[in-house]
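An instance follows:
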Amino acid sequence: MEPTPKTAAAAAAATNAVGSAAIATPAPAPATPMNTKPPPPPSPSVV
C-alpha cells in the first residue's frame, strides 16, 4: 500500500491536530508527555 498525497495529508492533519490539542491542553509543570503514571493521591495531611 503506497502512501498517496491524500493519505499523507490526512496523516499530517491528524498529527497536527494531536499536536495542537497537546499544546492547547494545560498540563501540570513540569510537562512530561511520555510519563503515563497518574499523579500520586493527595496526602491526608494536605486534605
